[in-house]
Amino acid sequence: GTTLRTAAAEKGRYFGAAVATGKLSTSTYVNILNREFNSVVAENEMKWDATEPQQGRFSYSGGDRLVSHAQANGMSVRGHALLWHQQQPGWAQGLSGSALRNAAINHVTQVATYYRGKIYAWDVVNEAFADGGSGGRRDSNLQRTGNDWIEAAFRAARAADPGAKLCYNDYNTDGINAKSTGIYNMVRDFKSRGVPIDCVGFQSHLGTTLAGDYQANLQRFADLGVDVQITELDVMTGSNQANIFGAVTRACLAVTRCTGITVWGVRDCDSWRGSDNALLFDCNGNKKSAYDAVLNAL
Ligand code: XIL
């Protein structure tokens, strides 16, 4: 293939980008998006604060715009994210206990039901594990509703959209470390108890080095019987950038159950990482050497 989307498709994978729907009217942006990518995820528009700005009042305009763009251009859609400790609406931040638990599960049910049949994979829960050596959960208002909040969310999502793959998604899980092992143990427990989980997303917001056991870490999750996906890839600029993009791509292809890669934006100037210039296209929309490294690896 001569584009990311065709080359990935030849390997049975997708190649996706996070999209800010406000940029879908910028021709440089949308031309690259449509040429190179066959999967999209909303950078912000499907998060809790965007989809339920007031309790019980749902707003799907941004998400709908992305879904219709995807459908018109042969792209699948990753849903991101049903529950997360960040970008919660103010009303949810003010709740706790059973009121928050019920609101959270209702949010999962309503949003996953609304998009039923349109989402390839949902990030049901995002970033619930702590950084550092504990291997345990992050403290958050959701976690304080009880340790079973994650499985409750996955069960609600399955009931709402039985056809969507249900993912747990996190960062700093780029090798075998305490955090990724904590998640690994949760997934193993879910599989043993029949809690519905289909995939684990590895955000892969990377610096100037890549863990030597990046592929081995993906593989150990796949060996639990879940798909794995690279969900938010971006890499700090520097002499290693192209090498790291290429190595991540090769790692995914080497793991049979790694179903696709998503980069977290299109051009460097679209990136939340600003001066890290962390993406595959420069601010003018030109392909970088990192792009060539990915295409050559596919
Ligand atoms: C980021 C978006 O890119 C920004 O536009 C927003 O201001 C903050 O969130 N992990 C995630 C993503 O799961 O949702 C985050 O996206 C980046 C880190």
From TrEMBL:
Reactions that this protein is recorded to catalyse: Endohydrolysis of (1->4)-beta-D-xylosidic linkages in xylans
Location of the active site: 232 (nucleophile)
One GO MF term: polysaccharide binding
Superkingdom of the source species: Bacteria
Keyword Metal-binding listed: no
Keyword terms: Carbohydrate metabolism, Glycosidase, Hydrolase, Polysaccharide degradation, Signal, Xylan degradation
GH10 domain mapped to chain residues: 1-297
Keyword Hydrolase: yes
Enzyme Commission no: 3.2.1.8
GO biological process, any: xylan catabolic process
Similarity comment text for this entry: Belongs to the glycosyl hydrolase 10 (cellulase F) family.
Protein name per its UniProtKB record: Beta-xylanase
Organism from which the protein derives: Micromonospora profundi
